[in-house]
Amino acid sequence: MVGKTIVGVEISNFKMIKAIDIDLTGKSLAIFAGENDQGKTSILDGLTSIFLGKTAICDQPLREGCRKGFVRGTLSDGSVYERTFTAKGTTRLKISAPDNEKHGQRWVDKQISKLGLDPEAFIRARPKDRVKMLLDMTGRRTELEAIDRKRKVAYDKRTDVNRELKRLEAQLTTLPVPMDDLPGEEVSSAEIIAEMKAAQEVGERNRAIDAQQEATVQKCLEAEEALGRARAYMKECKAERLITEHAANNQEDVPDISEFETKLAGTEDLNRQIREKQQRTQVLQGIGSFKTTSSSHTDTIEAYDEEKREILASVELPVPGLDYDEDDVSINGKPFDQASGEQQIRASVGIGFALQPDDGIKTLLIHHGEAIHENRLALLQQLAEEHGGQLIMARVGTCPGAIVIEDGRVAGHVLVDPGNLQEETEEADIGEDAPEDPKEKEADSPAIQDWDDGELPF
Q: 293 and 172, same structural domain?
């Protein structure tokens, strides 16, 4: 299917335009140039009003002091779009279409994309809005947004895993590397304490035996001194001494208590090292687990990215390397705002044309053409021709091939005597005995229909 472009523009008493009638046949790039406040932008606003309807019309569309006005656009398929305005604040859309059917604004809405009509909007848009426009251009927005939602879930999970992974890796740096022969479990200090207690008890028994021997010897001495007094007692004491001597000669060896104290002191340090080893092992296991999980999420994200790339590859993109993420559109991996001016122009104009229906109106409007360097105008014309469309630009100043607008008219051309037109509009209103206009006469034919969508007043 072949899209339509504008081949003629006629405007009377709209905003700053007094009267113009311009033939745009064969113009893929039409530039309206001139100084500020001369009416250049009014032409584009007029075209916008017939394509986008009431929401695109300012509060005072009529030129000051006039009671009626109109904007008329003739398209390459022969259809004529005309919007009239009155001082009473009413507006009416009349469409003459080749199919001779009755059409209104809802039909026009199917012929043009509001987003694509202004290619500058893509450059000016917020990054996230640029993403939405790009998705609309692909025609597979629902599918791509579903992939993006699943990708975001995987991305957020990977972020959480990587955050925990970094925490464990930081914790690992604080733990000392354990000795190779360090036991796997902590040593029980209770066993050492029991052994030490048993050794203490042996020492106590031996000390008691020593004390008893000493007492017995003393008794023997006393008995010898008192031998004469208690020979029988002496015999008993000797017998007792023999017993105690035998016990003394068979005493148990007393363990060195300091050895146990040293061993007990070393146990706590040993157990501390064992605990650190166990903690380090747990951290290493956690790091390994999180790395595996993170890698799995990365694989999932890359799979979603590949699925998106395949979808984008199936769509004819206006600029090679055009891509997007949830934050912005990118070109060859660079954020859109960092791309070259030529890449931005190619992308914005290409997306603008791509958003238009294949058999719809392939005309884009550029309101601030002075922001585009003069040496880029040839590129714009080339892009319009490549897309089988048309660019209409308003530009402060002038440039080769431009249509200069001065004081609401084409410079050097007087199509309608403004004085006469003013006089006429003061005497008649639309629907009254206004002077007959050939195109108004055509409105009586079946091919030209009044807008019947129920939104006539604004």
A: yes
In a domain, residue 322? The reply is no
Give just the sign of the alpha carbon dihedral 58, 60, 62, 63. Answer: negative
Residue 360: both structure tokens together: 């719809």
Whether residue 431 is contained in a domain is answered as yes
Helix (H) or strand (E) holding 407: none
Output the domain CATH number for residue 363. 3.40.50.300
Structure token digits, residue 414? 């007087």
In a domain, 455, yes or no: no
Structural domain for 264, as ranges = 189-272
Count how many domains the chain has.
3
Residues 27 and 104 in one domain: yes
Orientation of helix 377-386 relative to helix 341-355, angle to 10°: 30
- What does 144-187 look like in DSSP terms, one character per residue? HHHHHHHHHHHHHHHHHHHHHHHHHHHHHHTSPPPPTT--SSPP
**What Rg value do the Cα atoms of the chain yield, rounded?**
50
Same domain flag for 263 and 394? no
Q: Which residues contact 277 (CB under 8 A, 6 or more apart)?
A: 178, 182, 184
Helix or strand holding residue 80 (H, E): strand 80-86
| Pair 359, 1: CB distance under 8 Å | yes
Q: Coil, strand, or helix at residue 258? A: helix
360 plus 430 within the same structural domain:
yes
The answer to whether residue 182 is domain-embedded is: no
Is pLDDT above 90 for 114?
A: no
pLDDT in tens, 413-443: 444 333 333 333 333 333 333 333 444 433 3
Examine the domain organization and report whether 242 and 283 are in the same domain. Answer: no
Distance (Å) of CA 335 to CA 125, 128, 344: 13, 12, 11
CA atoms 373, 376, 381, 386: torsion sign: negative
Nearest to 196 by CA among 251, 267, 248: 267
102 plus 11 within the same structural domain? yes
- Measure CA of the first residue to CA of the last residue in the chain; give whole Å: 35
Query: How far is residue 240's CA from residue 217's CA, in Å, rounded to a whole number?
Result: 10
Stated as kind and residue range, the H or E segment containing 359 is none
pLDDT in tens, 219-267: 878 777 766 676 777 777 778 888 888 888 888 777 777 877 777 777 8
Residues 193 and 256 in one domain: yes
Q: Could you tell me the two tokens for 450? A: 């009044």
